[in-house]
Amino acid sequence: MKDVKAEIISVGTELLLGQIVNTNAAWMSEQLADHGISVYYHTVAGDNFERLARIFQEAETRSDLVFVTGGLGPTEDDLTREAFQHISGLEIVEDQDTLNKVSAYFNNHKREMTPNNRKQAHVFDGANVLRNSVGMAPGMLVEHNNTIWIFMPGVPNEMKAIMSEEVLPTLHELLDLNMVIKSRMLRFIGIGEAQLEHELQQLISEQTNPTIAPLAGVGEVALRLTAKADTSVLAEQLIDQLEEQIKEKVGRYLYGYDERNVEQLVFDLLKQHQLTIASAESLTGGAFASKMVGENGASQVFNGAAVVYQPTSKVNALGISEELIDKHGTVSKQCAEAMALNVKQTYQSKLGISFTGVAGPNSIENQPVGTVFITICDEQDQFQTERFQFSGDRQIIRNRAVKKGFELLYTKLNK
């Protein structure tokens, strides 16, 4: 099988407005990868005839397979058929089986079928009509100018049914699909994207199959390894070999795979070591606690949190002395350590962690925006305190502080 270039066009102004998240494209890409089909483009188009026609024309010049979802309904703004007819010249006809299905639906529900509902039975002349087992509007497969076009409804459960039951089996016959594409995400923490790329420069420059794609996140980076092979086993073996080469260079920063994040690993390590933790949070405003209680079984390891945003809250809720705050300030090593110790004692946990700093937009106590102190207080009341200078806006600084707190805990618990 040649390398088939595919693209996905999602139709609907509601997608452009952000009213609906385009989960269809992600799901379809994953399914196609499992069948050895590479997706090169994702496009979202509004319900506009001229723009749709232009997008369809461009897609036909660059792709072997074009998947179109949405715009097949009964209303006036469902323009997918009309736009493709404009570029293809194919006649639109009425599919009797689909019309019977639509009519039966309205009869069974004792509702009058309005004339525009007949539109759901409109298909291109000569198209392979794809059965919709969970809805009314069918899908269609059409070949035009050496490009295979697949049209499906935008409703996710209908699209998935047609894709699984009709499209993929048909493409296997048409294209003799005999390849699979597998990916694995390697997650790293404690190393920046630029440094990671530098350490792996030779591997990245020599990549062919599998490929390496660096992905940056908040406070961590990832590498997506993707292999294409005749079978899933062979693809996984190729990825295993490349992963070993990567681990030889930067394995000390590798903490997890795929969707497994550092927060979940810290949670598991706390359970493994039979430790409990409590948090004292100023600039993070309870964000660390929120991550902890988001895990199933949080009560086994998380005892509680004190959100002490104001200096008076630190004094009244945690018993931090006014003299300490007057002398050192709230954005200080001394205050961070007092917060971690006192919250540990208040909630009778084995560990305490604290966050204090300046998220912005203005400096505090002559400390610049982005200054953050994080302290971990252990079972022996020993402190590990780190000072950071984060960049970015207010929310980014807060998110980075929380992520860094989990990184410090992961490093400490994983020794």
UniProtKB/TrEMBL annotation:
Domain of life of the organism encoding this protein: Bacteria
Protein name per Swiss-Prot or TrEMBL: Competence/damage-inducible protein A
Organism: Gracilibacillus pellucidus
